[in-house]
Amino acid sequence: MLQQAKQVETTKATASRLHTEQMGVWRREGISSDAVFTTFKLDEGVANLLAKPGFNIWARYLTEFNPGKKTTIFKTLEVHFSDNTLSQLLIGAQKSPSTEKLATSLQNVQLKGFLDRGESPNAVFKLLQLDKGAENLFTSPQYKTWLNYATSFQKTKFDGAPVSVIDTLSAHHTDISLVKMIATAKATEGTKNMATYVEKSLIGKWAKDGKEPAYVSKLLWASAVDKKNLEAVYLEQLLIQSTVKVSSKLQLKQISVWMSQKETPDAIFKLLKLNKGSENVFKRPQFDMWLQFANTFKKKSPEKSKSVFATLSAHYDDLPLAKKIKTTK
């Protein structure tokens, strides 16, 4: 009844005074804050817990009638709820303006506890429910919270050794989900830079894992925005990171794909971005792949083929080209 009275402006002051008197009785009778917690049935269910009137009464009793500060709001919640349940409770409470501040404060305490006991960023990622609902991941406040935790973890637990963001994301989301997530985030100015960083890391991981270009191409064409450019970036990373044996095998497969798509040496030259960059074109890993494709194309379609020099001349002035050829000797 007193709880209901506190919700009405005309009876609010009276209800507050009566609650203070009631707390005095509890204290004189030696009623513990934990007993008050269970009296208000705060240990039964977590839905809107922080917004319940009984929670505010209990929290006030705990704060004002807690000699020696033997316990805290968080410690009590920790006793009654598991890490996962408490994390869900706090995440939900952060969505309401009336409980956001308290929930964020309690979450910080929880995260510090995780850090003190060495909870891995991967485990915390899941506790923060970041393994669910991939499309808006980068706009989630919990993602930023996790990034801060991962940074603190690597500083305090591994002397600055990097915590791989992309490895964690890949452990909980499929490649296609990540590509869609990145495409969505790149379309928004506030998350564009973050998404671009993750995209670069994902492409590097694919290359390191030796994902076939055809597989990556299919993913990018299904969801990504800057498809052609990303394909070129991936092929460059793949050629740099792969072993000679793996690289040759993948090159042959990719050349076969280009031939089936009726691509031309000129088109692939541009796709591999060999028409851009100030460094020696002959020393770039993509050049060998392009040259192999150009030779294959010439064998299959000699009437449509033109010389390597002709392709190079179309993209480089004679003098710079001569210098590039000279530096390869």
From TrEMBL:
The UniProt keywords, alphabetically, are: Secreted, Signal, Virulence
Q: Which GO terms describe its cellular component?
A: extracellular region; host cell
The record places domain RxLR effector PexRD54 WY at 110-149, 254-293
State a single Pfam family of this protein: PexRD54_WY
The reply on keyword Signal is yes
Tell me, in one coarse class, where this protein mainly resides: host cell
Subcellular location(s) of the protein:
Host cell; Secreted
Family indicated by similarity: Belongs to the RxLR effector family.
Q: Output this protein's name.
A: RxLR effector PexRD54 WY domain-containing protein
Source organism of the structure = Phytophthora oleae
